[in-house]
Amino acid sequence: MTTKAPLLGATGAVPGAGPGRLHEILGVTVSFKNLKISRKLAIGFFAVIATIIGMSAAVYLNLQTLRQATAEENGARTAIDLITQAEFKLARQENSYRGFLVSGDDFYLGLLDKHRKGFYEALDKMKASQAGHGNEADMLGAIQTAEAAMQAWQTNIVDVGLKYYADPINRFRAIEMIGQSGPADGYMEAVENILAGLSEGERLELAEVASISSRAMSQTEMAIIVGLALSVLIAVALGWLLSRMIAAPVNALTGVMGELASGNHSVEVPAVERKDEVGEMARAVLVFKDAAIEKIRLEGETEHARGTAEAERSRNESEKARKAEEDHVAISALATGLSALANGDLTYRITDTFSPEAQRLKDDFNATAQQLQDTMVTITGAIEGMRSGTGEISQAADDLSRRTEQQAASLEETAAALDEITATVKKTAEGAHQASQVTDQARVGAEKSGAVVREAVEAMAQIEKSSQQIGQIIGVIDEIAFQTNLLALNAGVEAARAGDAGKGFAVVASEVRALAQRSAEAAKEIKDLISTSTQQVDQGVDLVGQTGSALEKIVAQVGEITGLVTEIAASAREQSTGLGEVNTAVNQMDQVTQQNAAMVEQSTAASHHLAQEADELARLVSKFRLGTQAGAQTAPRKVAVAANNSAPVAAVTPKPQSARPALKTVSAGGGHAAALLAAQPQDDGWEEF
Amino acid sequence: MSEHLNRRASDRRRELIAFRVGAQEFCVDIMSVREIRGWTPATPLPHAQKFMRGVINLRGTVLPIIDLSARLGFGFTTPEARHVIIVVRVGEQETGLLVDAVCDILSVTEDMLQPTPNVASETVRSFIRGILAVEGRMIGEIGLERILPEKEAEAA
């Protein structure tokens, strides 16, 4: 209810704003005419958009009012629901209490408590929903009164009734309390009246909210209709204004331009004074008009100049005819002279009289012919020199070809010889390698021999030792023989002393003595032999020692030999490698020489061809008539050479004859070629070579 | 006794022991020889004559040893193991003679022994009783009586 005043204010403002702004725009139409076209269009669109914004604002405000009304309606409906629920719970309480009194079952007491709680809950919810409401205080007061009445019923009817009911004697009192004359209905009625009052209040509020909603809806419709009508009106008005201010002048200009294109330059250009784009277009059309007027003026001047040029041309025609006559004379004379030149007659000169303009042609022709004659004479001489030169060249090329072939042959032989040498050196290297191996073996053998010699020395020492032992044994034998001899002598002495009785004994004694002496002699001989053999063994030891030292020397020398032979083998290998490279180089030289030989043959052929060409050239040149020397020109080559350049040719022609033997001696002999050359009658040949 | 036998029959044979002193060969009658033995080092006697080599112990008997070479005037002998001592009996005295070697036992007749030449002095004749010339050898028979020092002293 509090939102009604601003809502009505907003809806009233929109229709008043639209017509006021349009009036203002029409008022400034003079200055509006001078604005740019883009600005004009922008102002039009802005007017339409402003109208639509105003309409939208009015609609928005009415929608706000509607939303608030709907919220209030919902709150009232909730309150009515809660009041209905409370009335229902109230009835159920009473019903449950009566059920208990009828049946005496405690179950109905449980139901009574449950419904009482439901009643209070509904009232509490109602209190909560009334928070912030306009008539909150009245509502809360009514609800508290209902609660108090309910509590009174509970205290005065139920609690008292239950006490009575517990006592079977007073049970009837409890039933009486809820009877027709009992006080229970009075308590109940109070509560019911309060609840009915609350329900009635809420229904009144619902009706009020519904009337507010319908009013807001009708205002919204009105705002939309008025806004749309204003927008269409403004759009139509601006369209008419803009077409009048832009399209009309452009159409006028189009008409003027059509006139200008069709050649009407007297037409007046409109809207030149305007300051917008149309004014600029009009000024540009004015420039076109001025340019067209200027162009017509220039065309008139050109026509006049063309007439003057025609007169000049007819005057020149007669002059040309006179000149053609003079030119004919000069041309025929020149033609005669040129045909003479074409036939090779270089002695022809023009003698006719020419016009002063052509006099220069005659002089030039005569000078040209003279120059050609002189040049051809010089060329003839040069050709003769060239012929003799090409002859020499071809001769030299022949010699060069022959010598190159000889060189190639020599190189081939050299290559073959080098191959043999390479093979020999390779064999040498292999031989040196084998020799190195053999000397190695010899060294090993010599070392083994050294060991054998040492063993021999040891064996000799053993022999010496054995000899010493033999000597000792022989000494013992000698001693024994000596003693035996003495014993035999004593025996002989005793036998002699015994006289005749001892004769036999004496014989035995003498025999023993003889044996002893023989053994003594034998022992002595053995001793001599042993001493001799000892000496010889000594000598042998000495000799074997010498052999050992000699063998050591041999080992050392064989080692040196091995080193030397190894070096020889290495150098032989290097030699072999070097010779291989030399061989490759010689083979390359051989190839190059072969190529040279081929090339020299080509150049020989070319030089011969050159000589032929020189002859042909001389023949061609001889066709020209050159005046005084005409008699000798067609002679063969040798004669022509002799006639023209007798002094140089005398020196040149003998050369090939003398060069040939000189070449032969050089290629065959080499060293004593100079001596042979000294005997040659002409030194020119050697210089040529 | 042998002298007796020799005097009775000139063809009676006698036996001689031949030995060598230096390069010379000499001999003595075998009957005067008691024993022949190898060299044993002798113990010198003080103030003895030069040819007296000393004494040796021969089975408990003291035996004087005479260097025969020195006694005969040929120079001193350097005795070695191969030298020989000939033990002889002269009268009652036994003496050892040092000689170089014993050659052999000769069996000769009396007439083979030739007298010492007269040209020799009495001294020589007293030392060499006679000379035996056999098989190209010249063997002088030593007169043992002169060899001993006592005899020499008596003779002097």
Describe what you observe in this structure:
Chain B: Residues 13-153 form the CheW-like domain. The complex is a heterodimer of chains A (689) and B (156). With 689 residues, chain A is mainly alpha-helical. Chain A contains 15 helices and no strands. Residues 1-20 and 630-689 of chain A have low confidence and may be disordered. Chain B has 156 residues and is α+β, with helices and mostly antiparallel strands. Chain B is globular. A six-stranded mixed β-sheet of chain B has the order 8-1-2-11-10-9. A five-stranded mixed β-sheet of chain B has the order 3-6-7-5-4. Chain B has helices at 2-8, 68-71, 122-127, 144-147, 149-155, and strands at 13-21, 24-29, 33-38, 52-58, 61-67, 84-90, 93-99, 101-109, 113-115, 128-134, 137-142. Chain B is 18% helix and 47% strand. The chains are: A mainly alpha (689), B alpha+beta (156). Chain A binds chain B through residues 479, 482-483, 485-486, 489-490, 492-493, 496-497, 506, 510, 513, and chain B through 15, 17, 30-31, 33-38, 81-82, 84, 102, 104-105.
Please name the defining characteristics of this protein.
heterodimer; A: 689 residues; mainly alpha; disordered N terminus; disordered C terminus; B: 156 residues; alpha+beta; six-stranded mixed sheet; five-stranded mixed sheet; 5 helices; 11 strands
List the helices and strands and how they pair.
The complex is a heterodimer of chains A (689) and B (156).
Chain A: H1 4-27, H2 29-33, H3 37-103, H4 106-129, H5 136-166, H6 171-177, H7 184-261, H8 277-342, H9 359-498, H10 503-621, H11 637-644, H12 646-652, H13 654-668, H14 673-678, H15 684-688
Helix pairs in contact in A: 1-3, 1-7, 3-4, 3-7, 4-5, 5-6, 5-7, 7-8, 8-9, 9-10, 9-13
Chain B: H1 2-8, E1 13-21, E2 24-29, E3 33-38, E4 52-58, E5 61-67, H2 68-71, E6 84-90, E7 93-99, E8 101-109, E9 113-115, H3 122-127, E10 128-134, E11 137-142, H4 144-147, H5 149-155
Pfam families (chain B): CheW
Protein name (chain B): Chemotaxis protein CheW
Domain CheW-like (chain B): 13-153
